[in-house]
Amino acid sequence: MKSTELEEIRVKITELDSNLLELLAQRQQLTNYVAETKIKNQIPVRDHKREEQLLIRLIKQGKKHNLDAHYVTQIFHVILEDSVLNQQAMLAANANPGSTLSVNRVAFLGNKGTYSYLATQKYFSRRSGELIEIGCQSFAEIIKKVETNEADYAVLPIENTSSGSINEVYDQLQHTSLSVVGELTHPIQHTLLVNQETELSKIKTLYAHPQVFAQCSHFLAELGNVEVKPCDSSSAAMIKVAELNSNSVAAIGSEAGGNLYGLHAIKSNLANQKENHSRFFVVAREAVNVPLQVPAKTTLVMSTVQKPGALVDALVVLRDNNINMTKLESRPITGNPWEEMFYIDVEGNVQDGPMQEALEVLQAMARTFKVLGCYPNEEINPTKVAAVSALAD
Ligand SMILES: C=C(O[C@@H]1C=C(C(=O)O)C=C[C@H]1O)C(=O)O
């Protein structure tokens, strides 16, 4: 194909892509109007029936154009997730007029380029107000910033699909009066970032956060003879590699983050598990009110009395009130050897009847008990298209 021919086709593709983007923006505007009517008429944000009908119609239509059903479904799952998250954010803002700030000062770990930085950008992109980023060197410093009103929010990683819970954050949450007001999950895609033209075999020293090394342990084991240097954050690792400017050093972190420091990726997908995601808590000084139209989660922290089956008794209370537990974590209590603090995430809103009943019973039976927060559930389960056979025609 002659290069002018290629150019002509590319011009058409560029134009088409920009039309696609315009249409997506128009769709988003319409779903914002939908959110406004849901606020007015107290209608739940999520409507699986409508989503299923929409997906079935689009899959059928796609088939006529030779577009694979899986491809169409994937694209629209992303569009629907974005639509639902935007609407949830709008309803939550409406239910908490006092918490809508013109400036959001947000504390997070490291500098520009860390996963916490990317998660912060993502979470606040759906919320009004200018974002002021406050990079910190430790989780304790992040929490302190909000406690002392130097920041309005903190974004804290709480768990990762490969390396599990981030204990240090749980331990910090034991002693704070801050509330969890939001959550988000963010894909963690580790890449090998370098400053100079080089190749894997030349790398002698690797810089990264210890959590990152844990998540990439298989890759490190395969690498063999490489010195591993832990850093306080992914951005600290990136800055180090940019400064050293050598072809024998590399950092592990996100490609988007590395690009901010002029680094480029020479290998991607370094994590042990392909599906590598981190979940973050967003915390603030004041708890938020989650409207009942928005699916909510509640995080509790409690210690039980020392008797056989005390934790089981607590979990039975959840079962009896038909409350689904999504996470259970235990952490030692500082100063009380062999005693544990339990962190429990459940689906439900503290304003719900069954939830209030369960919380009362739990509080009465626990030694210490606190609701760390009730916040919109941002884990959006994609609507499944059950009637696959109906799509055969
Ligand atoms: C936009 C709506 O809200 C949600 C998002 C949908 C969408 O983006 O198409 C569809 C159904 C709802 O889960 C709606 O209810 O129509």
UniProtKB/TrEMBL annotation:
One of its GO terms (molecular function) is prephenate dehydratase activity. Pathway: Metabolic intermediate biosynthesis; prephenate biosynthesis; prephenate from chorismate: step 1/1; Amino-acid biosynthesis; L-phenylalanine biosynthesis; phenylpyruvate from prephenate: step 1/1. Residues 105-285 form the Prephenate dehydratase domain. Its main location: cytoplasm. SUPFAM superfamilies: ACT-like (SSF55021), Chorismate mutase II (SSF48600), Periplasmic binding protein-like II (SSF53850). Keywords: Amino-acid biosynthesis, Aromatic amino acid biosynthesis, Cytoplasm, Isomerase, Lyase, Multifunctional enzyme, Phenylalanine biosynthesis. Signal peptide: none annotated. Its EC number is 4.2.1.51, 5.4.99.5. It is found in: Cytoplasm. It comes from the Bacteria. InterPro entries: ACT-like_dom_sf, ACT_dom, Chor_mutase/pphenate_deHydtase, Chorismate_II_sf, CM_dom_sf, CM_II_prokaryot, CM_P_1, Preph_deHydtase. Gene3D superfamilies: 3.30.70.260, Chorismate mutase, Periplasmic binding protein-like II. NCBIfam families: CM_P_1 (TIGR01797), PRK11898.1 (NF008865). PANTHER family: PREPHENATE DEHYDRATASE P PROTEIN (PTHR21022), PREPHENATE DEHYDRATASE-RELATED (PTHR21022:SF19). Catalyzes the Claisen rearrangement of chorismate to prephenate and the decarboxylation/dehydration of prephenate to phenylpyruvate. This is Bifunctional chorismate mutase/prephenate dehydratase. The gene is pheA.
